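Intended use. Records like the one below are meant for learning the mapping from a protein sequence to its folded structure. Do not use them to infer anything beyond what is encoded.
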Amino acid sequence: MTARKVRVRFAPSPTGALHIGGVRTALYNYLFARQHGGELIFRIEDTDSNRFVPGAEEYIIESFKWLGIKFDEGVSFGGNYGPYRQSERRDIYKKYVQQLLDAGKAYLAFDTPEELDAKRKEVANFQYDASTRMGMRNSLALPKEEVDALLAEGKQYVVRFLIEPNEEVHVHDIIRGEVVVNSSVLDDKVLYKSADELPTYHLANIVDDHLMEVSHVIRGEEWLPSAPLHVLLYRAFGWADTMPQFAHLPLLLKPDGNGKLSKRDGDRLGFPVFPLEWHDPKTGDVSSGYRESGYLPEAVINFLALLGWNPGNNQEIMSLDELVQLFDLSHCSKAGAKFDYEKGKWFNHEYIKMKDNGELADLFMPILQANGVEASKEVVTTVVGLMKERVNFVKELWDTCKFFFVAPTEYDEKTRKKRWKEESPRQMLELADVLEALDDFSAENQEKVVMQWIADKEYHMGNVMNAFRLTLVGEGKGPHIFDITKVLGKEESLRRIRRAVEVIE
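Structure written out for the chain above:
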């Protein structure tokens, strides 16, 4: 038998912002598809009409666009297996629901929510299954005439899957190996609701995966308990031979490792759990996003990839193409992965260091403008190149290097007391004269001339240079001092030196 073409899917529900755990699931599907020359499908699972949130679908698509995760087909991308939105596939699901009913693999249940609640109170750990179904209001327990009468009256019903008890159900998981579950622990799951004429997730995802020829289902660990049910559904339809292979990914855990990562953890500890900022249309709440917080998309991708997977070596920095080459589901962990948000900052720092200075300048320019600074792209590019290794985020560049664009009006008290000596005013005025006389104001020439002047005068080099820095920056920080003066230019450098002499006591 020839190997199946790899086809995987990411199928979120449009019920709100996309959680970072969902992003990781999509990323792993993307890496797997690309590595195997396969296809990645984007499907919207909107069978739960009560939980639909306007704008969520567009938000999800925009998130992946920003991250650089490209889909091959699906909602908004086209393809030959559509429609890709489950709410547009009602007639397809009805056909397959009927197939299960005709084959005696499913049945109609008319129990009202009130009746089910009463039964739960009456029977401890009540489960709708082989041990209880004949005592309930369904097409197995009721005479055919009564069922027909209920349908004729237009009574609402659900379709339940008939699960035979005491059967060993085997699920082969690529990450976890063989998982065996006794069918008696499973209830007769609802597959379809007449109220909205929509299937539940369990039926819809099986039918869709089959019809869309999905070869591998890579999804979160929270779906592992449902996998035996899904295996039984594939069998009931006669699709066991083309059933996809399963891989259930480890959970993303809170930073302390105690429990599943939630939005609350992000709010409490000050890190995003959504890719983009999310404005909840129902509550009006605004949640921070990685994009708006200043993370580079490639840093987010790299960070997420290593939460629950490793490349089999010590490599940490990997481009998307490298991740594609190295990705292997067998290297995924079975245990949950702690969400180390500080490590996320480290990745962003590393990617800022590697990023082209011109690209960083483009990101920094709006921040400068917001602070009332107009500067040329050339100058900003130079400054960014000098300062980028000192920051984790582009937005931090302002506080780190605003002295390039705005002359100091105050001088750090601690630095002044330590670095401004009795002789400093005289020496700084001399230095200004030395610099003013230069025709070649390159950093190299400045340094050569100033060092020679210090040596000729037998001045204390540390005292001179520290005082010099204070006049230019207003405190004792910054890159190589002649890189600063080169950017500032001769006129501005002299102005700052002479003003400091007037102001500093």
